[in-house]
Structure of Aromatic ring-hydroxylating dioxygenase subunit alpha:
Amino acid sequence: MSLQELLAQYTNETYTLPYPFYRDAVVLQEERLKIFSKEWQFVGHVNQVKNPGEFLTCEMAGEPIIVVRGDDDQLRAFYNVCPHRATQLEPQEQGRRKILQCSYHGWTFKLDGRLHQAPNFKDHMDSLCEEDTCLRSIQVETVASLVFVNLDNKAQSLQEAHGDFFEDLTRFSFLDRLKKHSSEKRLIKANWKAYIDNYLECDHCPIAHPAFASTFDMKSYTFVDKQSCIIQQADIKPTAKMGDVELQGVEVKEGRYYWLWPNMIFSISPGSGNIAVTVLTAVDENTTIANYTNYFVDQEPSPEQTENIKFVNQLRLEDIKLVEKAQIGFRSSAFPYGRYSPTEHALRRFHQMIKRALTE
Ligand code: FES
Ligand SMILES: [Fe+2]
């Protein structure tokens, strides 16, 4: 079935996105082209690239990317690819360099992306033009201390694309004080959209997340629909604890969970200032890497932050099991699509956005 035929099948009222969307390589190829190559993607907190030479790397739409602070204090982003013969330039996820060096033939680059030296062209430097030797740049922007990149040079600004998210974040005063505490990558045997589907409904919470349901007042659980994000909000129960640690009197008294189109999750948990970020990278139509990063206001986590890490980790493991089981069903021919429950409206909204993006 062609992509157009598939898209026509989804009328988005009662039934979910058809299951071939979760198992078809052509769909992922189109998503890379029409979604991931055009949208902003979170890469890190500005405190991770505060000093000249500090860098972060990531992947989006199958492209390796590097973000680096120049000697002139400017933050730049490039394809993390050597102009000589394509080798990935910087293999580390984060670090600090005086100069960027390719490990293949030793070309070196200044932090602004211009060639420094090309040893194998030593006496023939004149034969190289700037086009052949500069790193290819892409867009990078920082709002609310959060750094995002975009492959599309014509894309709207980060503020325009996600203004409602940043506006909501102004309720928290700790964003510029956050420091990276830890990060982790997990290989998930499911399509990236299965992970987002799971995040965008909480019908499964009482069944799959007993600790979550006992911490939060599930009657207060709400979904707030914004233009470029969906926010889930829950108040803590008056007697709630994080492990053995009391939550009364902490800076953040709620759970606030943001989904950002298309593949990002920002979770703020009760406690002192914190954000746990998830960015999904599709490896193929059946496999996704979840990149998790935990940020706290203090580098040494307080007792309730340590409990917070365990809490968030447990939720993730519970969700991963569910989405991997869902993927088994997506690959089955038993059913062509699923049914939305009366409360799964955020899920429906996500599916509509997928359809709209792929139809354009
Ligand atoms: S591929 Fe990088 S120096 Fe040759
Ligand atoms: Fe969940």
